[in-house]
Request: fold
Amino acid sequence: MNILVIRLSSMGDVILATPLLSFLRERADAAKVTLLTGASYAPLFEGDPRLERVVEFDHRKDVLDPGSVD
Reply:
């Protein structure tokens, strides 16, 4: 199962989404969880064991960078 969590802006909202990552890990341990977030917040999740992948969205360029942070 693949799960995509999207939280693009507002640092407070991005941080408040972190309990969801723990919940998903507990309830769907085999799931591959990807986080899509703003480029400035992606480094906060670098190396997070709850995530399979982090994808940055650069609002200035209006594009995704799928290889940005793993």
In short: Residues 2 and 32 are 5 Å apart (CA to CA).
